[in-house]
Specification:
It is a single chain. The protein is of the alpha/beta class. It is about 40% helix and about 15% strand. The chain contains twelve helices and nine strands. The strands form two sheets. Strands 7-6-5-8-9 form a five-stranded parallel β-sheet. Strands 2-1-3-4 form a four-stranded parallel β-sheet, sandwiched between helices. The structure holds phosphoric acid mono(formamide)ester (CP) and norvaline. The site of norvaline has 10 residues, from helix 6.
């Protein structure tokens, strides 16, 4: 039976999702409501006959599979477009690619390098564009993470997510997402690996509207004290060069049991995956009882189905 509705998400129809800053707090909460409904009813043919073009210029397991399966479960279809196989890889412009794809498909999901590429694509396309990860942001992962946190902890207000490690695309999207839904976000990163200052300030502004505190510091032990959630990501993101000096700095920020012993509560452990056991997190933490990493991975499917239904519905 199809009962899922897009109530509260109507204004998102036709919009892009380039960062979670594009959405209001209410829109994000409505997307999470819709995601929960869609999670209960696997097949909801809200996008019968619609197609999603998925451009990948970096590798992916979760994003690729969850978007493709999500479109199928919504009654639509997804096309995997490897950036190297497209004419884009031989110099066709992003703008021309956007205009051509707009004549065939109903939305584009793109995973690429600089955020400016996604913005250029969205500017030229007549259809919704979804950011499937750039060097700067990973909004779909953050949306799925908010769904997971809501399922595990209930209300966002008064909760604190502590991100430990490299200030990267994941950090940026978590700061914005947390601030938008009224959850505190503390980032502990080594000097020189902090998240982008402008994005941090943007998240802090959103936090002022919802009562969420967004803070960046260098001490992981102090940061985890009040954590309800401790979050990790890789030390070297896709497209980044491995840098011995940075890795040495980051080794002090590994999430392990001695670090978690500083937390007053028993925080959930989250990671967007893929993970490197023995680097950013130890096996006993990621494979331990408080880890929800596979729930996060599953929720990519449900959160993105909600996003697709809202943007294309
Ligand atoms: N978390 C995430 O985006 O995973 P993939 O790189 O496998 O898509
Ligand atoms: N920060 C990581 C996230 C992977 C999902 C990267 O960009 O490689």
């Amino acid at each position: 039976m199809i009962t899922a509705t897009v109530k509260g998400t109507e204004r998102l129809k036709g919009k892009d999702c380039l960062t979670l800053a594009d959405f209001s707090s209410g829109e994000i909460l409505s997307l999470l409501d819709l995601a929960r409904q869609l999670k209960e009813e696997k097949f909801s043919p809200l996008l019968m006959g619609k197609s999603l073009g998925m451009i990948f210029e970096k590798p992916s397991t979760r994003t690729r599979v969850s978007f493709e399966v999500g479109m199928t479960q919504l009654g639509g279809h997804a096309l995997y477009l490897n950036g190297h196989d497209l004419q884009l890889g031989r110099g066709e412009t992003i703008s021309d690619t956007a205009k051509v794809l707009s004549r065939y498909v109903d939305a584009i999901m793109i995973r690429t390098f600089g955020q400016e590429k996604v913005e250029e694509l969205a500017e030229a396309a007549d259809i919704p564009v979804i950011n499937g990860l750039t060097n700067e942001f990973h909004p779909c992962q953050a949306l799925a993470d908010l769904l997971t946190i809501q399922e595990k902890l209930g209300d966002f207000a008064g909760k604190t997510l502590v991100y430990v490690g490299d200030g990267n695309n994941m950090t940026h999207s978590l700061m914005i997402g947390a601030a938008k839904v009224g959850m505190n976000c503390i980032v502990a990163a080594p000097a020189g690996c902090e998240p982008d200052l402008k994005i941090t300030e943007q998240a802090q502004k959103f936090g002022e509207q919802t009562g969420a505190v967004v803070k960046v510091e260098n001490d992981p032990f102090a940061a985890v004290e009040e954590a309800d959630i401790v979050y990790a990501d890789v030390w070297t993101s896709m497209g980044d060069e491995e840098n011995e000096e940075r890795l040495k700095l980051l080794s002090e920020y590994q999430i392990n049991l001695p670090l978690l012993a500083h937390a007053r509560k028993a925080p959930l452990f989250m990671h967007c995956l893929p993970a490197h056991r023995g680097e950013e997190v130890t096996a006993e933490v990621i494979d331990g009882p408080n880890s929800v990493v596979f729930d996060q991975a599953e929720n990519r499917l449900h959160a993105q189905k909600a996003l697709l239904a809202a943007l294309l519905g």
